[in-house]
Amino acid sequence: MGKQVFKGIIPPMITPLSDIDKLDVAGLERLVEHILAGGVHGLFILGTTGEAQSLSYALRQELIERVCRQVAGRVPVLVGITDTSLTESLTLAEKACQCGAAAVVSAAPYYYAPAQAELVDFYSALADRLPLPMFLYNMPSHVKVMMEPDTVEAIARHPNVIGLKDSSANLVYYHTLIQRMKKRPDFSLLMGPEELTGESVLMGGHGGVNGGANMFPRLYVDMYEAAASADIPRLRKLQERIMAISTTVYKVGRYGSSYLKGVKCTCSLLGICSDEMALPYRKFNAPEREKLRRILESLEVEVVNP
Predict the structure, then answer these.
(1) pLDDT, mean of residues 84-103
(2) Is pTM, for the whole model, over 0.85?
């Protein structure tokens, strides 16, 4: 396995849909080019922002094929393989390998919350069988279990485990991992919440898997570069912009899915792709869409598909 260290902004791409089990192919192609034009350092498909667990396996495999073919090696493609079944995770990983992906990403199996020792057993068994390097994905709000630092260290002893994406929004936890993993310079630590990415990079993190980069990829790349070069005045300015998006775009609607609906609706308003959602979620109705349009105008973002 290669020892590539993944750094920078690796957006967790939304999955453009034209129906509940059909890709918006033209929108997908525009979205990929829009994100890559922002100078991102990679692309992560089939994550939380990609609605992976709501998509059929056939659609997931089609998405892997199309994205890898279109990206064509311009940046590394990371593929989410999170599942309650190790066998299904391996099937997706094999597809990712065949299509030229660089790595896979796996959150803990969900439903019954596994114990820490069970996480070590599960990931050891998975890593032994994977055809690609693996990122761990700490997502306690969705899978009901936190990967404790001792557990991460134990799993990371496997040479096929090359990094972790942390979406806990717990900076103490993240800083603890930075300290613990110093002995593994090839191990990438990526921040999920974009609101925390700048300061995490300043303190030794490797980058961010930031959903806002679906909409405004250059903004998040600029933020990462300012943090990586310790340009604090520029980072402060960019952070204000990122927080303006976080506190407005992601707050339309009343449900836990509001963030995702906000990202998808914004991409629709920007003329990139459809904002259809996979069930059980539904796209914004006209009042929410109009509210979001006004928010974008207040942020001085041009709306082309009101």
Answers:
(1) 98
(2) yes
